[in-house]
Design a protein that fits this description.
15 strands, 6-stranded parallel sheet, Quinone Oxidoreductase, Chain A, domain 1, alpha/beta, single chain, 10 helices
Length: about 350
């Protein structure tokens, strides 16, 4: 089978198209024929910064069809359409290959109405968004319709993949969603995702506008840039609010200590890979339920444009994500997708 591997860390040029044996699923595992592989920022950061112990296949997320199962897994799963999450975390086999064997719980049923493109767009972004939306004191452990009724959620960077998922999941759960963006084009994407209100922080007084929309403050902030937005988040936070940040850089944020104490604010870090197992299980179940409810979408009509590459051009796909392209980068591994 064809696979992309790298044996040393570095730029996209370390990625090589190779031939490898088709893997056999071990006990408790399934094997999926990969249709689409999704690329996330952590995929290129791992490739660039961490030298693998052996040949590494990149990419955590994907979608496909189960074609074999290991012992302990029902044979009825053969032929099941699935979305795949964290395939390469702590393992040498990500989704940038024609077949992947992985623990059965990391290949989750994908309804017939959901495309393989959507399946490959879930994983890291949607699980991160779910965690950010469920860390408030007294909040739900698992999102569901009505779980966030009466809550106002601020999504910073609503045009990004995590922001897009957070907007959709928060709306599905009943929240009023406000999103900040850096310009009109990104505003259109946030609205397409379903944000009730969009604030262009370059053209408006963001704090004043958010306070106009939510006079009592926002209950949950899904924050991509805490170093830049700490003061804004404090200014618009309701008492007992949580600022859940998943920053994708190494910048240091200055937390306003006394105002945070006065409002009993929680500043909560979110790294999807190290989320507690029970919280991860809740996230997988909720994302699956949202997909089944037709409440999660991807593509330009949902505010998440696709950028497609063939498997042989995985290096270009990684470069696109490293260059911060707006939208979701997908790799077509098997054709056709559906």
């Amino acid at each position: 089978m064809k696979a992309i591997t790298y044996t040393s860390n570095g730029g996209p040029d370390v990625l090589t198209l190779t031939e490898r044996p088709v893997p056999e699923p071990g006990p408790g595992e399934v094997r999926a024929r990969v249709h689409v592989s999704g690329v996330n920022p952590t995929d290129w950061k791992s490739r660039r910064n961490t030298a693998p112990a052996s040949a590494q296949v990149p990419n955590q997320d994907g979608s496909g069809v189960i074609d074999a199962v290991g012992s302990g897994v029902p044979e009825t799963r053969i032929g099941e359409r699935v979305w795949i999450w964290e395939a390469a975390y702590g393992r040498a086999d990500g989704t940038a290959q024609e077949y992947v064997a992985l623990p059965a719980g990391q290949a989750v049923a994908l309804p017939d109405h959901a495309s393989f493109d959507l399946g490959a767009s879930l994983g890291i972004p949607a699980l991160t968004a779910h965690r950010a939306l469920t860390v408030a004191d007294g909040g739900p452990e698992r999102l569901a319709p009505g779980a966030l009724d009466g809550c106002t959620v601020l999504v910073a960077g609503g045009a990004g993949a995590v922001g897009n998922a957070a907007i959709q999941l928060a709306r599905w759960a009943g929240a009023t969603v406000v999103s900040t963006v850096s310009g009109p084009a990104k505003g259109d994407l946030a609205r397409a995702a379903g944000a009730h209100h969009v604030v262009d922080y370059r053209a408006q007084d963001a704090a004043a506008e958010i306070r106009r929309i939510a006079p009592d403050g926002v209950d949950i902030v899904v924050e991509v840039a805490p170093a830049a937005n700490a003061a804004l988040d404090r200014a618009v936070a309701a008492p007992d609010a949580v600022i859940a940040f998943y920053a994708d850089d190494d910048a240091s944020a200055t937390v306003p200590v006394r105002p945070s104490m006065a409002l009993n604010l929680r500043w909560q870090g979110v790294l999807v890979y190290t989320v507690p197992p029970a919280a991860k299980a809740h996230a997988v179940a909720a994302v699956t339920a949202a997909v089944a409810d037709d409440a999660l979408h991807a593509g330009p009509d949902a505010g998440l444009p696709f950028h497609r590459f063939p498997l042989a051009e995985t290096a270009r796909a990684h470069q696109a994500v490293e260059d911060s392209v707006i939208g979701k980068v997908l790799i077509d591994v098997a054709a056709p997708t559906g």
